[in-house]
Amino acid sequence: MSIQRRQFIAAIGGGALAGIAGCSGTDGGGQSEDGAGVAGETLTLTTTTSTYDTGLLGEIHGDFEEMYGVTVDAVAQGTGAALESARNGDSDVVMVHARGLEDEFMRNGYGINRRDLMFNDFVIVGPESDPAGIQGMSSATEALNAIAESESTFISRGDNSGTHTKELNLWEAAGTDPGGDWYQEIGGGMGEALNIANQQGAYTLSDRGTFISQRSEIDLVILVQGPIEDGPEILANPYGVMAVNPGVHENANYDLAMAYIGWITSPGAQDAISNYTMNGEQLFFPEAVSENPDFQQYVPEGWSSDSSE
Amino acid sequence: MTVPVEPVAQLPAVVDFPFREQYVWSIIYVSLYVSVTAVALSTLFSLPVAIVMGFTDFPGKQFVKSVINTGMGFPSVVVGLAVLFIVSNQGPLGALNLIFTKEAMIMSQFVLATPPITAIALAAITGVNENVRDAAHVLGGTRLDVALVVLKEARYGIATAVLAGFGRAISEVGSVFIVGGNIVSSDGVSSTRTLTTAIQLEARQGRYDTAMVIGAILLAIVLTVNAIVVRLGDEGAMQ
Predict the structure, then answer these.
(1) pLDDT: is A22 or A78 the higher one?
(2) Interchain contact, A62 vs B187, CB within 8 Å
(3) Are the CB atoms for A157 and A195 separated by under 8 Å?
(4) B123 contacts: CB under 8 Å, gap ≥ 6
(5) How large is the ipTM?
(6) Phi-psi map region of B4: left, alpha, beta (phi>0 left; psi -120 to 50 alpha)
(7) Of B97, B185, B191, which has the smallest distance from its Cβ to A3's Cβ?
(8) Chain B residues whose beta carbon lies within 8 Å of the beta carbon of residue A280
């Protein structure tokens, strides 16, 4: 993100104008004085592979770039790595799906202005033969326990992603500590996990979007549904978006990050999210626009002002 | 700027995505831009080092040699990690905002390409027959003349050195993925996606056919560059 360099060039070009307006120009920290000042800048978004691999971001970012005359560099890393990049000040805005990790990020002061963005759900997929007999189970934890008891191969992302975090939470809720030959951690993305599960006739936990976008390449089927298809609520997959705190990283392009958050939570972008389909199926369900806004979403769950860290 | 929305939303847009001409050209461009720049910088750095080492003796020369040889085996992901730490906002060059840019990728490719270029060029220079040096001396050449004669003789080997560096740079995936971020903007133009990281992305999503097409493009580029350099070397040797 060559923000400073571009800003420097922009500052020279717009120097006269800034002088007339009585502004002192940009401060080199990626902040500009007004909305028009963001033109030509680059927003670095670190995000999870699911928003990227499904093609959603590529589909909707064009509108934002056109509206503000900016460029969005979307880096797909997985939730853990995306938050780590943001923590290091290497991105301006972060879009992930692991509320626990997001809260930690917010609580430690790295992020501000978290907004609920959209949701979809997780599904447990596996071979049609279903050796563990989990098809149609209404409880995700029972299904996982059935897989563990039958020692059917289960592919775990093992990459500290949002999906991996969810999977570990599910095992914990199921009261099972997975291990043994049947439990394989691949340390890779969702697409990779689906591929490997497909080749091995194994089970895995997938977000519905990636599974749909890859379904034509693989033979796996959904065996346990998430809440979108009336499955258990524990399989819900909410996404949040947060700006990197410019008080911690003065290089963070806070103005542009807030422009992005404002835009992506606007009715227009939320419509675009809900209109994005693949194989005729809606992949993401917007939830930023609400009749009853939950202002608590801006701060970590369980936050209190004296819980200093 | 925006990609026109395809009327048929039933088919995943990503399946035909890599075959959009603009996309393919842009990843080829990024691959070549990063690798060629890095190799050019490496050559500018490596050749003087190889020449100095080839023509002079100094204490610790063996040690420098072994450092260079070790460098040939640097795992690229480790180099990527090291460059990440340097260019990350928290790192010493953080203020330059190089993370997720081509410049960061060039830095890591430079580190990877320099040891093989130096080592192979040095071998080419020291491998020039002693008789050539002696003959140049006997004919009354100065040290500079001798050096030039030796360099001319070693030309083919030096071309091989540059090729080896280029081969390492353009086929490398680990470090460019870490420091570059594999970015394509929403208008389908690569910012930091190279042929290799594109292949990795396609393969991890199971689109092996697309991955193979990009792989074929990469192979064709490497073969073409090799053919051109070998041809130049042959012509040089024939003169």
Answers:
(1) A78
(2) yes
(3) no
(4) B157
(5) 0.70
(6) beta
(7) B97
(8) 9-10
pLDDT at B38 over 80: yes
Residue with token string 């999906």:
A163
Whole-number average pLDDT of chain A:
86
- How high is the mean pLDDT of chain B? 86
- Higher confidence at residue A66 or residue B15? A66
Q: How far is A188 from chain B (nearest CA, A)?
A: 8
Please tell me the predicted confidence (pLDDT) of residue B145.
84
Cα separation values, A258 from A105, A111, A253, A262, A289, Å: 17, 12, 9, 6, 16
Backbone angles phi, psi at A269, to 5 degrees: -70, -35
Radius of gyration of chain A (CA): 21
Q: What is the pTM of this model?
A: 0.77
Cβ(B176)–Cβ(B196) below 8 Å: yes
- Interface residues of B toward A, Cβ cutoff 8 Å, are 1-3, 5, 9-14, 17, 88-90, 94-101, 103, 181-188, 191-192, 204-207
Question: DSSP states of A220-257 as a string?
Answer: -EEEE--GGGT--GGGEEEEEEEEE-TTT-TTS-HHHH
Residue A54 phi, psi dihedral angles, 5° rounding: -75, -10
Q: Give the C-alpha separation, B30 to B125, whole Å.
A: 33
